[in-house]
Write a structure and sequence with these properties.
- By secondary structure, the chain is of the alpha/beta class.
- It has 2 domains: 5-86, 2-Layer Sandwich (Alpha-Beta Plaits); 98-285, 3-Layer(aba) Sandwich (Rossmann fold).
- Helices cover 27% and strands 32% of the residues.
- The protein is built from 8 helices and 14 strands.
- The chain has helices at 18-28, 47-50, 88-93, 135-146, 163-170, 183-195, 225-238, 255-264; strands at residues 5-13, 33-36, 40-46, 75-83, 99-101, 105-108, 119-122, 154-157, 176-180, 201-205, 216-222, 239-251, 267-275, 278-285.
- The chain has a 7-stranded mixed sheet with strand order 10-9-8-11-12-14-13, sandwiched between helices. Strands 2-3-1-4 form a 4-stranded antiparallel sheet. A 3-stranded mixed sheet has the order 5-6-7.
- The protein is globular and about 55 Å long.
């Protein structure tokens, strides 16, 4: 039986950075797929997941915890409707062009021609995050390209499509844990790891509670600011002496807040990339 989806069309003023914030909040609320438009975003969620057992549909109820809708900084309106069938492949194929980072790493779909670069990554993102197009993923790729990760035990936290874990393995990291709280991301990361013939990536579904008694030389976390602030102490406990922590998913104005939390946990700022007000920071653990 083809699932019925609920589609929410959001009109946003101004679109930057509100669209990315809204997508992040909707993702945590259970929305599965997003199509960005010139005026905002269309978000999709399975009707049965949102309203199980034929519970009456109340469109507004799914947005109760979406904080940005109450923000005075943006004007956001929406309409919602039931959608009988969505061809997800066509939805993302329409807007997914191959990308190249620093002439060394390409991220493309199976239907794109192979690129002549050192690291050619093939992913089929479907409803997952992390195609490399978003500023945060792009900058995390730049960080990884600069690092020697050979034989480094690595964690990709909030792995999305698994693209960063895949690049880490291509550069010699092993073993690698890739973790995401979203079931679709978990399944999609497994598929993409297999697609890229990765043999050292173990994908797990869950959150930072899975990290108990684990240790890593390199931790990559591309999530949102509040989750990072919550989980930085856990990352610090898992990180080996002289280990590296790469963080993204927040804005330039959040660097001081993130850095302060890292400093409290023995992690010290090394440098960062900036792209359209998004940042990706590098921290190192120093022996106390």
């Amino acid at each position: 039986m083809t699932p019925i989806y609920l589609g929410y069309t959001f009109i946003i003023q101004p679109t930057v950075p509100a669209t990315e914030i809204l997508i992040a909040e909707l993702g945590y609320a259970g929305f599965e797929s997003f199509t960005e438009t010139e005026t905002g975003v269309i978000a999709y969620i399975q009707k049965e997941e949102a309203f199980p057992n034929n519970t009456p549909v109340h469109f507004d109820s799914l947005l109760n915890d979406i904080q940005i809708l109450d923000s005075d900084e943006f004007e956001i309106s929406y309409t919602a409707e039931e959608i009988e069938q969505v061809n997800w492949n066509k939805e993302w194929e329409k807007n997914f062009d191959p990308i190249e980072v620093d002439g060394r790493c390409a991220v493309r779909a199976p239907f794109h021609e192979k690129t002549d670069v050192a690291f050619d990554i093939v992913i089929e993102p479907k409803m997952s995050f992390g195609t490399g197009h978003h500023e945060t993923t792009h900058m995390m790729i730049k960080h990884l390209l600069k690092l020697d990760v050979t034989n480094k035990k690595t964690l990709d936290m909030g792995c999305g499509t698994g693209v960063l874990a895949i690049l880490a393995e291509m550069k010699g990291a092993q073993p690698i844990d890739a973790i995401d709280i979203d079931n679709w991301c978990y399944l999609n990361s497994i598929e993409n790891a297999e697609r890229n013939k990765c043999h050292h990536i173990s994908v797990h579904e869950g959150d930072a509670s899975l990290l108990k008694d684990r240790s890593y030389d390199l931790i990559i976390a591309n999530i949102n600011r509040n989750i990072l602030l919550q989980d930085i102490p856990t990352y610090a406990n898992c990180l080996s002496s002289d280990g590296t922590l790469l963080l993204s998913g927040f804005y330039t104005e959040d660097i001081s807040l993130i850095t302060e939390k890292c400093n409290e946990n023995g992690l010290y700022f090394v440098g960062n990339y900036e792209r359209n007000n998004w940042v990706a920071c590098k921290f190192e653990k120093r022996a106390s």
